[in-house]
């Protein structure tokens, strides 16, 4: 009895001494312990996400993948799995589990590591505040921090910190991100087997993850399921079913809903400039761009299809490579039959082959007379019929191809590694990676919102964004701006300019400068409208000479072009200036919107991780006068104004209640864009560009048509546009617009070289014949047409309305003078009020040519 009392006394003394020692240790370490108050208002580091205007995810930027979850979003089975595996007494202990700690200490003393020392609270303390070094000091600090965390937070709050913070491999932090990375699903969509895999990862995320080590992951999953069963969380049947399920994990990126990598990178760079690197990748910003899924998808498809068509017109450059196999003689219809390739050889070859867009690698496994059999990456076999092969004339150079193939063996051989694409009819077509590049960009001329942008065939192939980074010679795309300057200096659409060769001595070079039309035909005296519609080079030069280089450059800079990009010589009229597609589109927007310079923008709004709008675009609008939103009583009235088609699109796309106390967001006073040309000037140039598509003077000039005539396939009179081809066809352009959308298409080589025409085999002559040079209408316009067919599909026809001070009078087609005739020799033409011709045509006017500056005129709409 005495001994028991002594034992209790000694124990009490030891307990008191231990408590004093622990408290003394706590006091000595208190100043070194980090504050855990920050856990009360924790801000999770989440990546930047970029969306389309209609809310589809385009891309995600940031090293750490995290999808923060609330307790309500976490499946109960995941909570059960974590408790059973990591801390089965979590809701009973005070941060440190004495039973688990005792078991761990006893195990150490006995030389056995039984685990169980770290509770979920202790893991939270370690993950947020401590390193992973294995020392007694760190363990003691971990215990003290755990006590503090337990006194500060509820059990559920601690559990959620653990669920959202824990590192789970492949740069995923938290179980929300891990569900996406390993299974491509929301956490709520996972099966018990998948949840058990994730619950087993905290022990060793690198060695137990199901992608790197599926066998270890399966063994660890069995442990998790066993503990869940023993703890009563799951039934025997659930246990066995999940235990026997296959490991289905594979690497998933962010669930991209819209493929627009060039747009994503543009938005990414804008956010970096605005907020800096630290905030961009950690604050969980959601960036909503101005592009829509419909138009962005259409733009990408149009560009890709056009590049493939251009590339295939110039011949087949052969397979990527070939799996070398021994060839043996065979009595089969094919003269030679190689030995069979092993599946391992095919699989290895396909796994190392690069591929882009819809072009996927395949291996030729059989060659028949008019078809080939191929094997794809998924071990699926398919057949390429002759329709998918016949195009593949041998490539010799950019302007020459070999004779058309007659059999499949003229094109491919057994073991060739090729690229193929699947057609809409589910047949396959032989393909190849285009060597040319392209860009397409579309804007709203009302406010500069970028509606679609594609900077190349494949972002994977090249991150160089040709929409914003490629300064290329613009060719005849510059002419509308030259003609606009001419209208400001006395010319009208009816002015006559001599379409005749120019021979001009150049003192600087010591040679004669001879600008030529393309094609090299000349019509003599020609009205300005027709000169622009037919893209007459010598007329553009004569106009520039008449108004002067300095005046022309000054006028062109008003459209947003940098003066340093504009040559100070007469080659400017032929398009020697180098501009980006975005700059060209911005310039054309001025004609479409009636004379205003708008600034292109891509980001509509930015939200923080709480869904609060921290930035809202407020672009300058092409309106005169502009109605202020402050004049409207309700948000509904503002929305009605937007729906009317005015330039306020998306200005109030978010509820006013979302906008917080950011001064930048408090006022939505409408800003007016700068007027740079008159509405009359813009209208007249638009009329001439409409003639470039729809033509004019049919009866007076049989067979005449504008350079953009192919766009008539859209069957819309409310479009206008201009082709552009540079010297030696190194660049091809088409820019065109309707009232509410402007689109520019460009094609060329990144290392500028000629885009020469392909040759065509003439069966009658039995030889090749060249088709001539590639040009804007043939090489760039098809992409524009394909895109605009989608962009305008649901848009009503909106005619280009003449502004005030525009009148229409009947003129003589040949001279541009007034006429009283109403036959085929006359037509109505638009003029600016005050510049209407005053002289009537005489009977004999064949020799009358009006030089630039002799006659002032104006304009008005014909259709």
Your description of this structure?
The protein has 863 residues and is of the alpha+beta class. Among the domains are: 1-32; 66-244, Biosynthetic peptidoglycan transglycosylase-like (Penicillin binding protein transpeptidase fold); 329-399 and 408-431, Nucleic acid-binding proteins (OB fold (Dihydrolipoamide Acetyltransferase, E2P)), CATH 2.40.50; 442-595 and 678-791, DD-peptidase/beta-lactamase superfamily (Beta-lactamase, 3-Layer(aba) Sandwich), CATH 3.40.710.10. The protein is 32% helix and 17% strand. It is built from 23 helices and 34 strands. Strands 4, 7, 8, 9, 12 and 13 form a six-stranded antiparallel sheet that branches. The protein has a five-stranded mixed sheet with strand order 2-1-3-23-24. Helix 9 runs antiparallel to helix 10 and helix 14 (479-487) packs across helix 17. The longest helix has 29 residues, at 2-30. The protein is elongated. 43% of the residues are buried.
Number of helices: 23
Helix content class = 25-40%
DSSP strand count = 34
Assembly form of the protein? single chain
Classification by helices and strands: alpha+beta
Query: What CATH first level of the domain at 442-595 and 678-791 would be assigned?
Result: Alpha Beta
Main sheet overview? 6 strands, antiparallel
Under the CATH scheme, which architecture of the domain at 442-595 and 678-791 would be assigned? 3-Layer(aba) Sandwich
Beta-strand percentage? Answer: 15-25%
Beginning-to-end CA distance, first to last residue: 118 Å
EC number: 2.4.99.28, 3.4.16.4
Family: In the N-terminal section; belongs to the glycosyltransferase 51 family. In the C-terminal section; belongs to the transpeptidase family.
Protein name: Penicillin-binding protein 1A
InterPro entries: Beta-lactam/transpept-like (IPR012338), Glyco_trans_51 (IPR001264), Glycosyltr_51/Transpeptidase (IPR050396), Lysozyme-like_dom_sf (IPR023346), PBP_transglycosylase (IPR036950), PCB_OB (IPR031376), PCN-bd_Tpept (IPR001460)
